Structures are given as C-alpha cells and as structure tokens.
Amino acid sequence: MSQRVENFHHIDDLEAGIFRELGEGISTRIFPGQQAMISVVRVGPNAKGSIHSHEQEQWGYLISGSAIRIQDGEHIEVGPGDFWCSPGHVEHGIIGGKEGAVILDIFAPPRPEYLKSGNALKP
Questions:
Q1: Which positions ≥6 away from 116 have C-beta within 8 Å?
Q2: In Å, what is the CA distance from 20 to each residue of 7, 40, 81, 110, 123?
Q3: pTM of structure
Q4: Residue ranges of the chain with pLDDT lower than 70?
Q5: The Cα angle at residue 80 between residues 62 and 101, in degrees rounded to 5
Q6: Rounded distance, CA 28 to CA 100, Å?
Q7: Strand ranges (DSSP E) for the chain?
C-alpha cells in the first residue's frame, strides 16, 4: 500500500481508522470527521448484527456481497449498489449473505462511542 496523505484513506487498508468489533463476525473501521463519520463495515457470511437504534441518522451503501437489512421490522434483501437511510431512533440491523458483505455507513452527527476502539461483545 502506498504512503497515505492525512485525510485520505483506502477501503482495503485494514489497519487504518478506529477498529470496533460490532458483533460475532461483524467489524468496522471508523473514520470520524467534525460533522459526520464513515464506517467501513465487514459482515461475515450469515453473521447477524443486533437490532438497535441510535439518535444519529445513518446512511448505508453496500459495496460488495449481499445482506438482509432489517429496518423498522422489515427484512429487505440488498446487494452491490443498494443504499439506504436509517433515520435516528429507528431500529435496524443486518444479516450477512452467504458470501458476507462490505458496507459503507455514514453517520451524522458522529457517534461519540465510535470515537474509540471497542468491542460490542464485551461490555
């Protein structure tokens, strides 16, 4: 990987950003800004994320693979190129497809708990 300039990143750089484990088989690398943050989420095959909500608006863009997006009780199949908005306080989650998925999430404003590395599996 070539040298990186400040504020420039590459989606395949698995050492960049703030690492967080979101669930069994689901992890992310987070890149915070002042008004928004990007989270590059990697969902393992058939991995199930917990249903949750937060105050921040969240946009998701499925880059590769497939998944089922659960939002407000609905199960929606998503594939490469699909994107969605989860308004604040709306319950949502994800289930990875048979080959897993890579998703780009955008949060506005940034989620304070995502400003440091962590593991959602260990309180």
A1: 18
A2: 20, 10, 24, 15, 13
A3: 0.91
A4: 1-4, 121-123
A5: 55
A6: 14
A7: 18-23, 26-32, 37-43, 57-71, 74-78, 83-86, 92-108, 118-119
